[in-house]
């Protein structure tokens, strides 16, 4: 019981710390668009393998990206996992380079078996993050120069509860039901310096609030290819779903002689999450290594994002922010364990490697703006005198601009995850 209390306190501390640091975990100007930067929801082992997850089946670590994987856990195990990341971002544009450092909360979850054929997981995951501060200057046709500033911050989260059901010996199905919520604030200001009182400054603050549910379905089928070899095929699907959200807009017009004329209004909006399709295959040999490949598609181009307002400027700004396109991703990865049945500590270390390629789901000026490439590596370190695992991973991400007038980003990220593997549900024998 003491061990359980220590585990629970550690996880609660991780969650509280994570929620705090998650308030400022990105500085990308591209988070001006859509819901911001979509979070990598994979856990420590998956992150270091390029993000493969759909065919990944590991009874020692949690995989919420395919709830069918929950049935891999054995009857005596209860898993707790928490993870955080640190990142260094370099932004380059027309020879100008900027640097930003951030930290983020990645995940918090637990998993356990309810029946020999039924397992459950619950957890907290970030869905997306917004954080930017961009300024520029413009000149009107009349020769008036003015400054513009765009800032934004906020996050969307999901608290999930999922079940995995073993239909047959090698076939499992699963479902996650999530409570989906969050707030995103965006601020736009314009100022005409050194002008007379009839030229004003403009300030518009937009607040988006979302609260709804989300469903994810999964399947895994494992085939034996011999005495020591097997292959697992996985598939996931999330249906398109309309969100319950509202948007509040506050605009302020100021002159030199007047502090401000404030217009406060709530706009009716229609927003949706897209259909999500994913499939993956993993190959496992003798407990020594795993290799896999995943592909996913999010149909953002088919969602309805609309605002109901008579203000043409507000409508144009909303349409530019939520002009979205389909997002696809392909991931490759693997894990190698030198001597899983030996006594040497180093023989039990899990060496992980991976890579991925993905396209953005947002548009800039009506065009796809970037391409994203990533390489990953990491270690799964056994915790001495326990069944727990410390996962350390490194990612290098290159976000390449497709147009010369757009910026590029290089990100180096370190992720740390801790999996507590507790022995539960067994009777102690006392002589």
From TrEMBL:
Primary residence: membrane
GO CC annotation terms, alphabetical: cell outer membrane
Key words of the record: Cell outer membrane, Membrane, Signal, Transmembrane, Transmembrane beta strand
Domain of life: Bacteria
SUPFAM superfamilies from the UniProt entry: Porins (SSF56935)
UniProt cross-references to InterPro entries, sorted A to Z: OMPP1/FadL/TodX
Membrane topology: Multi-pass membrane protein
Signal peptide positions (record): 1-22
Family named by the database record: Belongs to the OmpP1/FadL family.
Protein name: Outer membrane protein transport protein, Ompp1/FadL/TodX family
Organism phylogeny: Bacteria, Pseudomonadati, Bacteroidota, Bacteroidia, Bacteroidales
């Amino acid at each position: 019981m003491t061990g359980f209390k220590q585990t629970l306190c550690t996880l609660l501390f991780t969650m509280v710390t994570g929620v705090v640091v998650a308030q400022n975990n990105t500085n990308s100007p591209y988070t001006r668009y859509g819901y911001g930067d979509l979070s990598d929801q994979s856990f420590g082992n998956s992150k270091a393998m390029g993000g493969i997850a759909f065919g990944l089946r590991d009874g020692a670590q949690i995989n919420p990206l395919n709830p069918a994987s929950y049935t891999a856990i054995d009857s005596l195990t209860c898993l707790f996992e928490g993870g955080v990341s640190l990142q260094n971002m370099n932004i380059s544009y027309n020879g100008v380079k900027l640097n930003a450092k951030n930290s983020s909360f990645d995940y918090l979850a637990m998993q356990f078996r309810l029946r020999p054929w039924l397992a459950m997981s619950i957890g907290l995951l970030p869905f997306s993050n917004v954080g930017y501060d961009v300024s520029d200057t413009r000149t009107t046709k009349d020769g008036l120069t003015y400054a513009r500033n765009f800032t934004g911050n906020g996050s969307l989260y999901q608290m999930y509860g999922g079940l995995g059901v073993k239909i047959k010996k090698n076939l499992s199905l699963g479902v996650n039901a999530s409570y989906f919520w969050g707030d995103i604030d965006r601020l736009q200001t314009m100022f005409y310096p050194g002008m007379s009182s009839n030229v004003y400054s403009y300030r518009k603050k937009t607040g988006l609030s979302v609260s709804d549910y989300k469903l994810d379905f999964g399947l895994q089928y494992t085939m034996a290819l011999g005495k020591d070899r097997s292959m697992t095929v996985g598939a996931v699907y999330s249906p398109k779903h309309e969100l319950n959200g509202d948007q509040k807009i506050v605009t302020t017009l100021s002159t030199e002689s007047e502090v401000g004329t404030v217009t406060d209004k709530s706009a009716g909006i229609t927003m949706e999450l897209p259909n999500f399709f994913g499939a993956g295959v993993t190959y496992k040999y003798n407990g020594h290594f795993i290799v896999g490949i995943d592909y996913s598609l999010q149909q953002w181009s088919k969602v309805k994002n609309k605002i109901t307002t008579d203000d043409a400027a507000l409508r144009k700004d909303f349409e530019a922010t939520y002009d979205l396109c389909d997002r696809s991703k392909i991931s490759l990865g693997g894990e190698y364990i030198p001597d899983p049945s030996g006594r040497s500590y180093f023989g039990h270390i899990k060496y992980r490697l991976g890579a991925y390629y993905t396209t953005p789901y947002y548009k800039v000026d009506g065009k796809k703006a970037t391409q994203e490439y990533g390489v990953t590596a990491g270690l799964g370190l056994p915790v001495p005198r326990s069944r727990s695992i410390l996962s350390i991973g490194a990612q290098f991400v290159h976000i390449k601009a497709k147009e010369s007038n757009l910026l590029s980003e290089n990100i180096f990220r370190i992720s740390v995850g801790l999996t507590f593997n507790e022995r539960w549900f067994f009777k102690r024998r006392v002589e």
